[in-house]
Design a protein that fits this description.
mainly alpha
Protein backbone atom coordinates (compact mmCIF):
# COMPACT_ATOMS: atom_id res chain seq x y z
CA UNK A 1 0.00 0.00 0.00
CA UNK A 2 2.86 2.38 0.79
CA UNK A 3 4.40 1.94 -2.64
CA UNK A 4 1.07 2.50 -4.39
CA UNK A 5 0.40 5.61 -2.30
CA UNK A 6 3.80 7.00 -3.28
CA UNK A 7 3.18 6.18 -6.94
CA UNK A 8 -0.27 7.76 -6.71
CA UNK A 9 1.24 10.92 -5.20
CA UNK A 10 3.31 11.44 -8.37
CA UNK A 11 0.59 10.22 -10.74
CA UNK A 12 2.23 6.90 -11.68
CA UNK A 13 -0.06 4.36 -10.02
CA UNK A 14 -1.78 1.95 -12.38
CA UNK A 15 -3.74 0.33 -9.55
CA UNK A 16 -7.23 1.58 -8.75
CA UNK A 17 -7.69 1.93 -5.00
CA UNK A 18 -9.24 4.23 -2.43
CA UNK A 19 -6.55 6.59 -1.15
CA UNK A 20 -8.65 7.30 1.95
CA UNK A 21 -9.05 3.59 2.69
CA UNK A 22 -5.30 2.99 2.28
CA UNK A 23 -4.45 5.87 4.63
CA UNK A 24 -6.94 4.60 7.22
CA UNK A 25 -5.59 1.05 7.08
CA UNK A 26 -1.96 2.18 7.28
CA UNK A 27 -2.78 4.43 10.23
CA UNK A 28 -4.36 1.48 12.01
CA UNK A 29 -1.34 -0.67 11.10
CA UNK A 30 0.95 1.91 12.74
CA UNK A 31 -1.16 1.69 15.90
CA UNK A 32 -0.85 -2.11 15.89
CA UNK A 33 2.92 -1.85 15.46
CA UNK A 34 3.06 0.42 18.51
CA UNK A 35 1.56 -2.42 20.58
CA UNK A 36 4.63 -4.60 20.03
CA UNK A 37 6.48 -4.77 23.33
CA UNK A 38 10.24 -4.17 23.61
CA UNK A 39 10.59 -7.73 24.92
CA UNK A 40 9.03 -9.23 21.77
CA UNK A 41 11.38 -10.79 19.23
CA UNK A 42 10.36 -8.54 16.32
CA UNK A 43 10.26 -5.29 18.30
CA UNK A 44 13.12 -3.64 16.37
CA UNK A 45 11.66 -4.64 13.01
CA UNK A 46 8.18 -3.45 14.03
CA UNK A 47 9.53 -0.05 15.11
CA UNK A 48 11.51 0.37 11.88
CA UNK A 49 8.46 -0.54 9.82
CA UNK A 50 6.33 1.88 11.88
CA UNK A 51 8.77 4.69 11.08
CA UNK A 52 8.80 3.88 7.35
CA UNK A 53 5.00 3.75 7.11
CA UNK A 54 4.66 6.95 9.15
CA UNK A 55 7.11 8.78 6.85
CA UNK A 56 5.25 7.60 3.77
CA UNK A 57 1.96 8.85 5.22
CA UNK A 58 3.52 12.16 6.18
CA UNK A 59 4.87 12.56 2.66
CA UNK A 60 1.54 11.72 1.04
CA UNK A 61 -0.58 13.86 3.39
CA UNK A 62 1.67 16.89 3.92
CA UNK A 63 2.27 19.57 1.27
CA UNK A 64 5.39 19.08 -0.80
CA UNK A 65 8.67 20.63 0.33
CA UNK A 66 8.60 23.05 -2.61
CA UNK A 67 5.12 24.34 -1.67
CA UNK A 68 6.04 24.75 2.00
CA UNK A 69 9.37 26.45 1.23
CA UNK A 70 7.69 28.80 -1.25
CA UNK A 71 4.89 29.74 1.12
CA UNK A 72 6.94 30.17 4.28
CA UNK A 73 10.25 31.13 2.76
CA UNK A 74 12.04 28.73 5.12
CA UNK A 75 13.95 25.57 4.42
CA UNK A 76 12.81 22.18 5.67
CA UNK A 77 15.41 19.92 7.30
CA UNK A 78 16.99 17.36 4.99
CA UNK A 79 15.34 13.95 5.21
CA UNK A 80 17.23 11.26 3.27
CA UNK A 81 14.19 8.94 3.23
CA UNK A 82 11.95 11.46 1.48
CA UNK A 83 14.34 13.89 -0.16
CA UNK A 84 13.68 13.03 -3.80
CA UNK A 85 10.15 11.59 -3.88
CA UNK A 86 8.82 14.60 -5.77
CA UNK A 87 11.61 14.49 -8.36
CA UNK A 88 11.39 10.78 -9.17
CA UNK A 89 10.01 9.56 -12.48
CA UNK A 90 10.07 5.86 -11.70
CA UNK A 91 9.16 4.38 -8.32
CA UNK A 92 9.50 0.73 -9.39
CA UNK A 93 12.84 0.54 -7.58
CA UNK A 94 10.86 0.50 -4.31
CA UNK A 95 9.75 -3.04 -5.15
CA UNK A 96 13.39 -4.21 -5.14
CA UNK A 97 14.15 -3.16 -1.54
CA UNK A 98 14.32 -5.73 1.22
CA UNK A 99 12.51 -3.56 3.77
CA UNK A 100 13.78 -5.67 6.67
CA UNK A 101 17.52 -5.29 5.98
CA UNK A 102 20.09 -2.58 5.47
CA UNK A 103 21.83 0.19 7.32
CA UNK A 104 19.50 2.74 5.69
CA UNK A 105 16.87 1.50 8.13
CA UNK A 106 18.76 3.02 11.10
CA UNK A 107 16.63 6.04 11.98
CA UNK A 108 18.29 6.96 15.28
Amino acid sequence: MCIELLKNAVGQSSVQFSRSDAVQKLTLFIAFLEWVRPTDGNYTLAQRLRKVVRRVLEHVLEPSQKEVAGAGGGELPFDPMLANFNDMNDLDWLNTIDWTQGSWMEFN
